[in-house]
Amino acid sequence: MRDLSLHILDLAENSVRARASLVRIGVSVDESKLIALTIADDGCGMDAELLARVMSPFGTTRTTRKVGMGIPLMAQNARLTGGDIAIESQVGTGTTFTATLHADSIDCLPLGDLAGTVVSLVTANPEGPDFLLQCSSPKGEMTFDTREVRQALGGVSLNEPEVAAWMLEAIREELEPIFGGVIL
Questions:
Q1: 32 inside domain
Q2: CATH at 49
Q3: Residue 79: half-sphere exposure toward Cβ, Cα within 13 Å
Q4: For the chain, how far is it from start to end, CA to CA, in angstroms?
Q5: Residue-wise pLDDT tens digits, 131-153
Q6: Which of 111, 170, 177, 181 has the greatest number of CB atoms lying within 10 Å of its CB?
Q7: Is residue 184 domain-resident?
Q8: Where are the alpha helices (DSSP H) in the chain?
Q9: Structure pTM?
Q10: Per-residue pLDDT tens for 81-126?
Q11: Domain range holding 18?
């Protein structure tokens, strides 16, 4: 994958398939330029057997193909920077995936189009789940929550072109001062 936002897309899609009602996406960078990516959901979760297999490219729950490269590739990219990943999951409760990467490593992927990724997830799943994006760096923090957007819009679908364009611009506007010059 070319950038971290594509990894986030892949991992969040796993949460959608797990029938989550809320997918929390966190991206933070600290003073030492350590990036923490978190994707947490309240989906069906994984039992110990599946959790042990997800690190293998041959461990997937998908029926359309026999391999699942998303988590192993994210783990490789994190480890190339001196970081790592952790996965916690419980059946019936959900899953939390966390990756740490060192932004100052030559092997660290760029963040990519995080705003576009989140809007793609939302517009592809207009009826749910809800998505909560929380980002922070020493320069500031931001939150984008589709529950708030739904409440403000009443019954307007989140995949309406005008709504999608507004969400994209709003997220980009909030991300630039937080990550600009750090990981963008």
A1: yes
A2: 3.30.565
A3: 8
A4: 16
A5: 999 999 999 999 999 999 999 99
A6: 111
A7: no
A8: 4-17, 48-53, 70-80, 114-124, 146-153, 161-179
A9: 0.91
A10: 999 999 999 999 999 999 999 999 999 999 999 999 999 999 999 9
A11: 4-179
